[in-house]
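Before the break, one more example. Copy the sequence into your notebook; we will annotate it together after we see the structure.
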Amino acid sequence: MDPTDISPPRRRIYLMRHGSVDYFSESGRHPDPDAVGLNEVGRDQASLAGLSFAHAGLHFDRVIVSGLARTIETARRVLAETRQKVTIETWPDLRELRAGPLEDIPDKQLRTAFVGTFEGVVPPEKRFANGESIGELLARVHPAIARLRADPNWQTVLLVLHGGVNRAIVSLALTGQPIFIGNMSQAPACVNALDVGSAPNDWVVRFIGVAPYDLLQAHARATTLEAMLLQFLKTRRDAAPD
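Here is what the structure looks like once it is written out:
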């Protein structure tokens, strides 16, 4: 390598969140979160993200998902729009934070249990909805990203994952530390662009949370988790006996 070259070679990670889903049905049922697929809006969001990649002429050497249905469906729609035949890899270490039994959480504790996990720099002992802790999330996500970076056989990779997992990865890229910054937007089917070099802390964050279907997000004020909480409260109250 030329010692006068101040532009080290870096590779690109496109980090997506899956498209919109309905976590709670209008009848009050709570579908299995591991099996829930995209709703109609989410399918359109994923396809529009794919069109953005296609218009840029991007080629993915690898495509990696968590294995949950909503990430697989999003990745397939992106690949369909880019007309690429890339094997979709499943990495279970990159699944979303697991919540505990929602029925056990009183109404007055719901906001802290849900939204409190995504406020500021979150301590590792904090649990998402009485389920998995932030420390447990980081302990599986960060080694998986290190494993990906250790593989030299790719230049551009697409990761289609989840809001909490994406925050864990972007937090690492921003700080180089095993911390979790919760208050960054990860809209459905949004895209983050991260460049990585050979040194452990050689990260360049190009952009965070760009939604190809709504670039300016002009009317967005609530987070997706706040919307999820409102949906859960509605289904709980609708299902309550008179």
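The chain has a mean pLDDT of 92. The first helix runs from residue 40 to 55. Try to locate both features in your own notes.
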